[in-house]
């Protein structure tokens, strides 16, 4: 899997204002900005992202995914 494919999967299942994915093919890091994260705890945000990946997390297609999940307001405050 490529970073572009992983980014496309996440964006396909979650409305994203911004998304960056980097990694080596198995270990990934992502910055995901979505209004869907409003009012959600960190674990709920991560679960929403994992839901977009489905079985890929369980079949080792995506071995590890480190995430920074932000609302648009949180993202704007950082940039």
UniProtKB/TrEMBL annotation:
InterPro entries: BolA, BolA-like_sf, BolA/IbaG_stress_morph_reg. Coiled coil: none annotated. Gene3D superfamilies: BolA-like. Pfam families: BolA (PF01722). Belongs to the BolA/IbaG family. This is BolA family transcriptional regulator. It comes from Hydrogenophaga borbori.
